[in-house]
Amino acid sequence: MIDIKDKNGNLRYSVEITDKCVYYKALMEEEYVLLSFDSDTLVPFAKVDYIETEFGTFYAVYIDKPKRTSNGGYSYEQKFHAPWEWLRNRIAFYDRQKGSEKSWKMTQRPEYFLDIITGNISEAGYGDYSFDVDENLTEMKLVEFDATNIIDALTAVAQAWESEWWI
Hints:
Layout: E1 2-5, E2 11-15, E3 22-26, E4 30-39, E5 50-53, E6 56-59, E7 67-68, E8 74-81, E9 103-108, H1 110-123, E10 141-146, H2 150-160
């Protein structure tokens, strides 16, 4: 069983693990646990509901609408995302000149971009992150951002240097 809890840690619903329940992780794309289950009653999921698994803690970032079943119940396919998925909801701002620009471009080495991105993560209240850059990635490159969310900004930087990122 996996317990789905609300933001205060109270049990919202317990789901029996079946072969329809899936853990999925794609590097630089997404990481989630999909819980597929049926219920006789409507379960009132809310954003920030969470589950704890052997892979870590996962959160309901988006609420999926259940389908009605022929017996009057509900069929659910609810995804619970890794904590870093919240960063999709935040724009990567350039704020090095006493202002916040959502559209910007810069020619620099990858650590300069990552310094800006980790600063955005911290400013958004998601904690302090550090980064490591392969010592062979020393070339300066142009990367452009136009109201780009933090996850897509990380991907743009990684693609510019034909590299990858992970959290």
